[in-house]
C-alpha cells in the first residue's frame, strides 16, 4: 500500500492564492467506514512568491483556534504550514469546501475587527508568547477577504 504525502503532489505553480482546497478525506477506523475526517488547505500567500511572518502566522493560529471553535464543534485542528503560506484545517466528517470558505471568511472578519489581548498568548499559555503580530495578521485577513467565497474554492482560477 502506498501512502504518499498528498500536498507534495499539488502543483504549487498552478494554484492562485488565497484559496481553500479539500486536500483529503480519511477514514478514522476501518471498522467504521462512515466515520471520516476531512483536511483542507487554506492558503493565504501565493506559493514561492510571498509568505507570512512567523508573528502573523502565530497570531492567526491563536485567533482561528478561538473563533472557529465558537462557530462550529466540527473543528479538530488548525495548524500553520511550515512554508508559512497558509494553514491546514482538519474537521470531523466530510465537509464541503463552500462551508469551510464561509467559516474561514467569518473568522477572518472577526480577526480584522479584533482589538485587545490575543487569546492564549501569555507566557504560561504559549510556547513563544513574544512572537505575535496582530497588525500583520489583520492585513493578511483583509487580503484574504477581498476574494469572494465562491472564488476561494476555485483553486486553479487565473
Ligand atoms: Zn502560541
Structural account:
- With 158 residues, the protein is an alpha+beta fold.
- It has a single domain, classed as S-ribosylhomocysteinase (LuxS) (Gyrase A, domain 2).
- Helices cover 32% and strands 19% of the residues.
- The chain has four helices and four strands, in the order ββαββααα.
- The protein has helices at 54-71, 97-113, 134-145, 149-152, and strands spanning 19-27, 36-43, 75-80, 86-92.
- It has a four-stranded antiparallel β-sheet, covered by helices on one side.
- A hairpin with an 8-residue loop joins strand 1 and strand 2 (36-43).
- Helix 1 crosses helix 2.
- The structure holds zinc ion.
- Residues 58, 62, 126-127 line the site of zinc ion.
Secondary-structure map:
Blueprint: E1 19-27, E2 36-43, H1 54-71, E3 75-80, E4 86-92, H2 97-113, H3 134-145, H4 149-152
The structure holds zinc ion.
**Order of strands in the sheet with most strands:** 1-2-4-3
Largest sheet: 4 strands, antiparallel
The CATH topology is Gyrase A, domain 2
What is the averaged pLDDT score? Answer: 95
Beta-strand percentage range: 15-25%
Query: How many β strands by DSSP?
Result: 4
User: Number of folding domains?
Assistant: 1
- The CATH homologous superfamily corresponds to S-ribosylhomocysteinase (LuxS)
Q: What ligands are attached or bound here?
A: zinc ion
Run of helices and strands: EEHEEHHH
- What level of helicity do the residues show? 25-40%
Question: How large is the count of helical segments?
Answer: 4
CATH architecture type: 2-Layer Sandwich
- End-to-end distance: 36 Å
Amino acid at each position: 500500500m502506498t501512502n504518499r504525502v498528498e500536498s507534495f503532489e499539488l502543483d504549487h505553480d498552478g494554484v492562485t492564492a488565497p484559496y481553500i482546497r479539500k486536500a483529503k478525506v480519511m477514514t478514522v477506523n476501518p471498522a467504521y467506514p462512515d466515520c471520516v475526517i476531512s483536511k483542507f488547505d487554506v492558503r493565504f500567500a501565493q506559493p514561492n512568491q510571498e509568505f507570512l511572518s512567523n508573528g502573523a502566522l502565530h497570531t492567526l493560529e491563536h485567533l482561528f483556534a478561538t473563533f472557529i471553535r465558537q462557530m462550529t464543534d466540527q473543528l479538530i485542528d488548525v495548524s500553520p504550514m511550515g512554508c508559512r503560506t497558509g494553514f491546514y484545517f482538519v474537521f470531523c466528517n466530510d465537509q464541503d469546501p463552500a462551508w469551510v470558505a464561509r467559516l474561514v471568511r467569518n473568522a477572518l472578519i472577526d480577526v480584522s475587527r479584533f482589538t485587545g489581548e490575543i487569546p492564549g498568548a501569555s507566557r504560561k499559555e504559549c510556547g513563544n508568547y513574544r512572537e505575535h503580530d496582530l497588525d500583520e495578521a489583520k492585513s493578511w485577513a483583509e487580503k484574504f477577504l477581498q476574494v469572494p467565497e465562491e472564488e476561494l474554492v476555485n483553486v486553479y482560477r487565473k
